[in-house]
Amino acid sequence: YSISSPPNQMAYYDITIRRIPEGFVSDYLLDRVQVGDILESTGPAGHLYYNPLFHGRDLVFLAGGSGITPFASMIREVTDRGLDRNIHLLYGCRKPEEAVFHEELLLRADRHPNFTYDLVISDPEEGYQGLSGLLDAGLITDRVGDVTDRTFYLCGPQAMYEFCLPQLQKLNVPRRRIRQEVFGTTREITQETGWPRDVPADKVFQVKLSDGRTIPARAAESLLTSLERSGIVVENCCRSGECSLCRVKMLKGKVYQPENVLLRKSDKEAGYIHSCAAYPLEDLEILL
Q1: Which residues, at least 6 apart from 47, have a Cβ–Cβ distance to it below 8 Å?
Q2: Would the pTM count as exceeding 0.85?
Q3: Which of 33, 53, 68, 75 has a C-alpha 20 to 30 A away from that of 47?
Q4: Does the structure show a pLDDT above 60 at 185?
């Protein structure tokens, strides 16, 4: 779930929500929140936005699935306000019907010469007439042309980053001209490298807190989410193992952390873990 309305829309936020199986917040927002409910929230967080000092005028957005949402916000602002930026959107989806905002994007591309939109289907049915395949170097060159001095923004599932970043390297796009959204932690954590095969995803462990309380925590769910399910608020921001705001001190036990978690050396030596990217492998004792 993320904000998809433009920043110039000040009266309210549009939030686009993708339902996640056993999702903690998405199910709540879609099934329980009613008109008139008041929600308390922190401010918007994230770093995938346009910076006029560094990003230039020519922008290429590579979106995958629900990763279209931050781009919808930026596209709406540029086209609504008539800003002096050129945007080319390459939107990869498995099926045409999975494309979010498709009709609106077509209409905006038709009305605004500085915005170009291509929908790319990775698993088309027989007879499909549109663009198909993956967002590879050849397709990017064919649709975008010269990539010199263009800034690329990426947002989508982890598999998309793993594929698209090497493709941009093939085109000699400097890393400083690639902006990447971090879209939460890995969904299938048990499929990650290093996950112990003797720990099933639905195994439940007990986590003892420093105040004496004990909460249940499922192996395949982050410690942060388990704490939140038990009504315990832990300050957090990125939910991707990067910012360290949600760190807690592990006094006893063992957790799994993906390889891409950016844990500072001093935190590691002191026994701190990022609760948003730590998954219990046995009973734990932690200090909040």
Answers
A1: 179, 181
A2: no
A3: 33
A4: no
With 60 as the cut, is the pLDDT of residue 87 above it?
yes
Tell me what pLDDT residue 172 has.
Answer: 97
pLDDT at 242: 80
Q: Which amino acid is at 202?
A: D
Tokens matching residue 51: 């910076």
Whole-angstrom Cα distance, residue 218 to residue 228? Answer: 13
Q: What is the pLDDT of residues 215-235, one digit of tens each?
A: 999 999 999 999 999 999 899
Three-state DSSP state, 200: coil
Q: Crossing angle for the helix pair 102-111 and 69-81, nearest 10 degrees?
A: 30
Residue 141 to residues 55, 58, 126, 147, 257, Cα–Cα distance (Å): 20, 14, 25, 7, 37
Domains detected in the chain: 45-180 (3.40.50.80), 190-287 (3.10.20.30)
Residue 285 parent element (H or E): strand 284-287
**Does 7 or 239 have the greater pLDDT score?**
7
Q: Cα–Cα–Cα angle for 265, 270, 275, nearest 5°?
A: 85
Strands 247-252 and 284-287, sheet pairing: antiparallel
Let me know: does 283 contact 206? Beta carbons within 8 Å. yes
Q: Where are the alpha helices (DSSP H) in the chain?
A: 26-31, 69-81, 102-111, 137-144, 158-170, 223-229, 265-270
CA dihedral 101, 237, 182, 251 (to 10 degrees): -140
For residue 20, count other CB atoms closer than 10 A to its CB.
14
Q: What is the DSSP letter of 166?
A: H
pLDDT of residue 184 exceeding 60:
no
Mean of pLDDT values over 131-137: 97
In contact, 62 and 173? CB cutoff 8 Å: no
